[in-house]
Design goal:
Number of helices: 17
Helix content: 40-55%
Oligomer: single chain
Distance between the termini: 28 Å
Strand order of the largest sheet: 2-3-8-5-7-6
Largest sheet: 6 strands, mixed, barrel
Radius of gyration: 33 Å
Structural class: alpha+beta
Number of domains: 2
Number of strands: 10
Length: 423
C-alpha cells in the first residue's frame, strides 16, 4: 500500500489537469527529449556497427586473415615446405601461396593502374570468398584454354590466359567477358644503347566479381599463379603465403604462434595490423558519436530537472500536507524519483521502439545510397547489437533518475508548517 501510494502521487503529479495542465505539457516535452535521444543513439550506433562489420566481412573475405612474408621482401622459394609448416600451427585452417603484381591494365578504351594477384584457385578458395562474388563468368582461369575463341578479322587470335576483374575496373576499362586486356609491367629496364620495353601480356576476361567495396572492385584483378610467376620471371617463387584462421579475432595470437614456428627470415602479420588505422578510425567515430548523441539525452535530463523543480514549487503546499499527514522524507524522495523513472522509462521505451523500427526500415529498403568512391560502400549498413541496446537503455534511465535527485532532495527538506503557510 505504501508503494502504491507513492506511485499514485507521482503519477498524479505528472498528469496534472486543470490549472496545472502546463506541467503535463512540460512532462510530454521531457519524455519527447528522451525519445529523440534514445532513438538517435540506437540508429547511429547500429549504423556504425554496420559499417564496421560490413567492412570487416568484405575485407577479410577478399584478403587473408594473416599474411606471411619475407623480411627482405625477397619472396618465398621453398613455399610448399613453409606452407606445410604453417599448416601445423594451432588455429590455422588453410594456407595458400600468392604472387603480387602491380601493373597497368590496358584496353581499347583506357589504361588503368591495378593490383593483380596471382593465385592457385585450388587452395585460394579455402582462404577467400572471392569466388562467391562472381557476377559474370567464372573464376576458372583455364576456361579460355578449354574453350578458345576463333581468330578475329585480321588474323588476331584471342589470348588463352584468363583474368578476372573487379566490376568497377571492368566498367572503367570498357570491357566485358571474352574481351582482351593487356597487362603492362611498370618496370622499365634502361639501357642507353638498346632500351628494353616493359613486359606486356594479353589476357582474356573470363570473370567479373563484385565485392561491394569500391577500393577492391575498382583496382583488383586475379590471374593464375603460374602465369603470374612466368610474367614476373620468378619460377618456383611466390611473394608470400595467405593464412585463414578459425576465429578472426584470434588472428593476433595465431600470428604470434606462426612467427615462433617459422622464425626469420619470415614474419607473419594479421589483419588487425594491416588494417589497424581503419579499425581505429571506426572505433573512434563510434565512441565520438555516442558521446555527442548522449548530449541529447542530457538535454532531456535538464528538461526533467526543470519539470520536477516546477512541480516542487507548484505543489509546495500539497507536499507540506502530505508530510503533515505522516509522509516521511524518504517517501517524498521516492515520489520524485518515481517521477523521473516514469519519464525515463516511457521515453526510453518509445525511443527504443522508434529506433529499432527505423533500423528495420533501413535494413529492408536500403533507400539511403552512399557514394562508393568515398565510403567504400554503396548502401547504409545497419546491424543492431543487443549489448549496445542494453547500454543505451540503462544509460538513458540512469540519467533520467539522476536528474530527479536535486528536486527530490529539495522537496524532502520542506517543513510542513512552512509549506502549508503558502496555501
Amino acid at each position: 500500500m505504501k508503494k502504491s501510494f507513492e506511485l499514485f502521487v507521482a503519477r498524479r503529479y505528472l498528469t496534472a489537469k486543470g490549472k496545472d495542465t502546463f506541467l503535463s505539457v512540460i512532462t510530454l516535452i521531457s519524455i519527447g527529449g528522451v525519445v529523440v535521444g534514445v532513438m538517435a543513439l540506437v540508429v547511429v550506433i547500429s549504423v556504425m556497427n554496420g559499417f564496421e562489420i560490413d567492412l570487416r566481412e568484405k575485407i577479410l573475405g577478399t584478403t587473408a586473415h594473416i599474411t606471411v612474408l619475407h623480411v627482405g621482401r625477397e619472396g618465398v622459394t621453398d613455399y610448399p615446405a613453409l606452407e606445410a609448416e604453417i599448416d601445423r600451427v594451432e588455429g590455422v585452417e588453410a594456407v595458400a601461396p600468392f604472387v603480387f603484381v602491380e601493373g597497368i591494365l590496358s584496353s581499347k578504351r583506357d589504361s588503368i593502374g591495378a593490383v593483380i594477384r596471382g593465385v592457385d584457385m585450388a587452395s585460394h578458395r579455402e582462404i577467400s570468398t572471392i569466388e562467391d562474388k562472381i557476377v559474370e563468368g567464372t573464376m576458372d582461369f583455364d576456361v579460355a584454354k578449354k574453350s578458345p575463341l576463333e581468330a578475329k578479322l585480321g588474323g588476331y587470335v584471342p589470348p588463352e590466359d584468363g583474368i578476372v576483374l573487379g566490376v568497377e575496373l571492368a566498367r572503367n576499362l570498357g570491357v566485358d567477358l571474352n574481351d582482351t586486356v593487356t597487362l603492362i609491367s611498370p618496370q622499365v629496364i634502361w639501357n642507353p644503347l638498346a632500351p628494353v620495353p616493359p613486359k606486356m601480356k594479353n589476357f582474356r576476361v573470363v570473370g567479373i566479381f563484385d565485392v561491394g567495396m569500391y577500393e577492391f572492385d575498382s583496382s583488383l584483378a586475379y590471374i593464375d599463379l603460374e602465369t603470374a610467376q612466368e610474367f614476373l620471371a620468378i619460377p618456383h617463387k611466390v611473394n608470400g603465403l595467405e593464412v585463414r584462421v578459425a576465429d578472426v579475432f584470434d588472428a593476433p595470437a595465431v600470428s604470434a604462434r606462426i612467427n615462433d614456428a617459422v622464425g626469420l627470415p619470415y614474419f607473419a602479420r594479421d589483419w588487425t595490423v594491416t588494417h589497424e588505422q581503419l579499425w581505429t578510425m571506426l572505433a573512434l567515430e563510434k565512441h565520438t558519436m555516442f558521446v555527442i548523441l548522449t548530449l541529447i539525452i542530457l538535454v532531456a535530463a535538464f528538461n526533467i530537472l526543470s519539470t520536477l523543480i516546477m512541480i516542487v514549487i507548484e505543489k509546495t503546499g500539497e507536499i507540506g500536507i502530505l508530510k503533515a499527514m505522516g509522509a516521511t522524507n524518504g517517501a517524498i524522495v521516492r515520489i520524485f524519483l518515481l517521477n523521473g523513472l516514469i519519464i525515463g522509462t516511457v521515453g526510453t521505451a518509445l525511443g527504443l521502439v522508434a529506433g529499432l523500427g527505423l533500423c528495420r526500415v533501413l535494413q529492408k529498403y536500403q533507400f539511403v545510397e552512399l557514394p562508393a568512391e568515398v565510403y567504400a560502400l554503396r548502401t547504409l549498413p545497419v546491424v543492431v547489437q543487443p549489448l549496445d541496446i542494453l547500454i543505451i537503455c540503462v544509460f538513458a534511465l540512469v540519467i533520467s533518475v539522476a536528474a530527479t535527485i536535486y528536486p527530490a532532495w529539495r522537496a524532502a527538506r520542506l517543513e510542513p508548517v512552512e509549506a502549508i503557510q503558502h496555501e
